Amino acid sequence: MQAKRPRISNEERSQAMRRALLDAARALFVAKSYTETSTPDIVAAAGVTRGALYHHFEDKKALFQAVVETEAEAVARSIDEVGDGELTAIDALIKGGEAFVTAMTEPGRTRLLLLDGPAVLGPAAMRAIDERHARKALREGIEAAIAAGALPALPAGALTAQLSAAFDAAALGIEMGDAIADHRAALHGLIEGLAASAAER
């Protein structure tokens, strides 16, 4: 006698379909680009109907934004994981920077977050996504370091923007073939230099 298969709820089925669409779309956006990927391509790769796609997402752009948001969430999780444990404020910033750079080496991620994302969604939308995820973690780390006297009392928003730009530049450089160790060393030096300037004041 065959064992009964567990029943799948409508919610579970819906979430599985959404996940299939996100996975298929991500693979196609990375392989072909946003512009060259059509909705028929996506539904064929996901094994669902066009009706299912439009049930979950308003259009291709909304699906792309969901893919980008998912990637940004994954990067933020990597940063949060290194925040556990006893770290000084400066060590937490350095470890967070290392986690960001490592997370961005996931194939296709730099393209989605730093190249195609801004081109398709626009700078304002990408900044809003970043501020919910990696940039939020960075700002919290900077504010904690300033409060502890480990960084100079500079405007936290501006310092976050400039360090975030440095981290993004590192990710792009690594994507183009730079040695990851070189960028890690440079980011260490940048943060430690800021810390040294605080100690001198």
UniProtKB/TrEMBL annotation:
Keywords: DNA-binding, Transcription, Transcription regulation. The keyword Nucleus does not apply. One of its GO terms (molecular function) is DNA-binding transcription factor activity. This is TetR/AcrR family transcriptional regulator. It comes from the Bacteria. Gene3D superfamilies: Tetracycline Repressor, domain 2. Transmembrane segments: none annotated. Pfam families: TetR_C_41 (PF21351), TetR_N (PF00440). InterPro entries: DNA-bd_HTH_TetR-type_CS (IPR023772), Homeodomain-like_sf (IPR009057), HTH-type_TetR-like_transc_reg (IPR050109), HTH_TetR (IPR001647), Rv0078-like_C (IPR049484). Residues 15-75 form the HTH tetR-type domain.
